[in-house]
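Q&A log
Question type: sequence-to-structure
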Amino acid sequence: MASGIDVIFLGTGGALPTKERGLPAVALRRDGELFLFDCGEGTQRQMMHAGLGFNRPMTIMISHLHGDHVLGLPGLLQTMSSLIRDKPLDLYGPEGISSYLGSLRRTLAFAANFPVRVTELKPGQEISKNGYNIKTTNALHDITCLAYAIVETDRPGRFHPEKAKRLGIPEGPLWKQLQTGKEVKVEGKTVTPRQVMEEPRPGLKIVYAIDTRPCDEVKALAREADLLMHDGGFTEDRRDKAKEYFHSTAREAARVAKAARVRKLALVHISAVTRDDSILLKEARSIFKATLVPKDLTVLSLKRSR
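Response status: OK
Response body:
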């Protein structure tokens, strides 16, 4: 198992692409599996640049059905089919994502040559997977918009063989039982996992909240996250525009990060009008120091606790 999760910012721009920034898409690489938040136009080309591959286990999570977040799906699915992908793909999104995919099949006369498993989610719905959970909440936008969290399950604490030996437990199946959380009996005495193992080690928590005003729902979802990716592409002097378009300023995103006690904040969905990243960075860091403004193809590696 890898020691963490790589976050690859494929597209960091807003609704309008620029020479420097593509449309929204962020990939997570975790233990051989790939996650994709949103799929703006050109995502498959950015995936090629990042060397992510197209035939690994993959989950796509769409925040909402504005074009800059979903218009890359046709090209990505077509590319995967052309490259003879054979693994199923899980696609999650709000109500309407099934109709959107169905319209692609009808109007493009296109069908993927691999299974695409589509699930429509309501805000607050959770999906349990092997080793992690996908959690959702309602972002504050002008249409239904989901914020997502990938939350790894706790890993067992470290096992101490010397403690087991001192307690008279022979190496073998009984050690395994203790490591899986079960009590064992040896010579009439009971030994619990806590006597030979450290506390469980928390996994990583990564939150994606794009196209949203600051809101309590996102703040709760992001509580103590290792990374919060939050809409924050407007400078403070354009706060009125941010409100009008249901987006956030860099400083507003920083307040959410501080209130949620996250470890790191990445500002995403950078407005095409905002050409100087240093202004966003300065405004956000005046509230929350651990902020970055990633560029396209920036890679951020998050390490699990040992």
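Response note: The first strand starts at residue 4 and ends at 11.
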